[in-house]
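Summary for the steering committee. One of the milestones for this cycle was to obtain a three-dimensional model of the protein with magnesium ion bound, which we needed before selecting residues for the alanine scan. The sequence and ligand used are listed below.
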Amino acid sequence: MPEQTESASRRLLRRLRDTLAEPGAGQERLDRITTIIAEQMGTDVCSIYLFRDADTLELCATEGLKPESVHQTRLRVGEGLVGRVAKTARPINTGNAPQERGFRYMPETGEEIFSSFLGVPIQRLGERLGVVVVQSKHARQYSDDEVYALEVVAMVLAEMTELGAFVGEGEALAALHQRPVMIRGTVAQEGVAVGHAWLHEPRVVVTNPIADDPETELKRLKEAVDRLRVTVDEMLNSATTGDKDQLQVLEAYRMFANSRGWKRRMEEDIARGLSAEAAVEKEQSAARARMQTVPDPYLRERLHDLDDLSNRLLRILTGQGERTGAERPADPILIARNIGPGELLDYGRSLRGIVLEEGSVGSHAAIVARALAIPLVIQAGRVTTEALNGNLILLDGEQGIVHLRPEETVRAAFEDKIAMQAKAQKRYAAIRKEPAVTLCGQRITLTMNAGLMADLPSLESSGAEGVGLFRTELQFLVRSKVPRRSKLAALYARVIDAAKGRRVAFRTLDIGSDKVLSYMKPQEEPNPALGWRAIRVGLDRPGMMRMQLQALIRAANGRPLTVMFPLIAQLDEFRAAREHLLNELDREERLGRVLPEKVEIGAMVETPSMAFAPRQFYELADFISIGGNDLKQFFFAADRENERVRRRYDTLNVSFLTFLEQIVKRCEDTGTPLSFCGEDAGRPVEALCLTAIGFRALSMRPASIGPVKHMLRKSDLAEARAVIDAARASGAQSVRPAVMDWLRRRGE
Ligand code: PEP
Ligand code: MG
């Protein structure tokens, strides 16, 4: 870069900084800035367009265009050259603007006489803020140096916008992060919540985008990059060798941290007059802009890695760590791009809700959020850039909508909804100690699903009659290495203690598919849900299962023990699993330990094959629990993790209900106790239909026990059954419409 251009660029930035330091309203500052840029760059025009809402740009200041067009000229994103710059987040540089694709003639501005056009996006960390444009009468292409200089200016404008330097009257000059924003995501754990934003990784604020002394800044950058490299090397050294994903990310970190191109670009920005922080952020913004347009998921991941790395570098440079001094609100709603299960557990039940920019329904974080019954919305785009610590948030975990800084009317409507739910909660609390007995006198056992120590208090608060499903893999998922047998035995003993004599059905490790342990060698499988998982792993590599069974026997320590095996798909698998448990009981006895007072050995029916299993299966199992989540996905061949198909088939579909009913009949024939422990058991209408076709035990999330009990207590199962049968006879695809209609007529 020529020495002269460098100093010209620095001069421009210095003048900008001086202008910004002077007192004045936002509008005055913008006006002065356009004049300075036009003067310094030797152009006839400089204009600044800012977003007035998510889709519209407004001309907010200009030097050279007709002054009366300021705040009058508006463009939609993608419209005209300015709109295209905003849309693509890329500069447009042309010597013949009127001939350029998409040029829009705006008579009120008088811009038709300007041939050359250079527009550059004003953006900060992927958040689009506006466009800065220079134009000249003389037909010429701007040089790379000029494009670059305007990009540096745009960066400073972005920082200044963030710091509120241009706040004034009108929507376009409204302070950032103050407007209401609605973000649509995907529900990963239902529930509604009102609270205040708490950023898992607070935004780093750069207060000094312009620097006087490039030498000092270059030195600061070098030191920070060196420190970053050391940190990445340390992370690589302590990484678990078995975790391919983690290693891949860290290798990418190392590659970027050592990338000459990355460092060179930042050094050039500094030479132009930016501070080290602003130079890092400029690169980060560019990476984020690219991230939004790259379709290849692998490349997008790598850009994410670069983004993470830039964040680390910024934290080193600014000294702003996790602790920014901000006070955690009393009703925090956690905002993060993504979060690991361990970190989420650290926050625990203190959170009112969670909003993630990424995440998936089956992620470990989602599993933990479900266990903690904290409403979770995932794939909520832009939330980490939009939200500031302390912002009011309404989280609608039923619709998957996040209202950030909501309008008063939205807030009032939402509060009505919450009040109605609170009223319902009171109703449920009133029947907490009552049994679930239907109007026709049928007693139904309602138990809860659990898996973490954090679930145990719900045993009392929910009115559960025991734990119908204890997902033991959660304890393994939230750790970074296999828990020791003694530790597991102590954990299980605490669960049995907390149950105070109520039955707890421990399910042996259900890993594989969506539940991948970071310390296990990952399996490359084309269809993990149909792959090497659950009991298949347990039987093929029995070491871990045997250790777990020993821990369970020790935990029971003379008390009754209930164990069930997941994903049994044929009789011999159950026989073999059962044999393992019997062997461990023998072994423990030989070792002189106290055996459980009574042992129940059950099977989970999660594949359609077991509905047709030999009678011996039903006779051998002490009990059967239907894992409806898996059973339904296999019955309809519809992946439970795939948003496109997972809601496609109704649980109340006639085929599925009739199929479940056959299993009920087979259990009745052999006298095998049967329960249902998939998510559907916790939905009142589904629970009613399941009991109507013969289920007498349901296991669900603790929060569902109240609503389900309430529904059952005012229902007559024979009547419900008649409605279901009539719907089936009518050729309906699902019995839901008929059941809903009946409930409505009943006054609900
Ligand atoms: C199920 O499949 O219904 C079940 C209860 O097990 P999980 O959801 O843990 O697979
Ligand atoms: Mg399952």
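Key point for the committee: Residues 469, 471, 510, 606, 627-630, 677-678 surround phosphoenolpyruvate (ligand 1) (CB under 6 Å).
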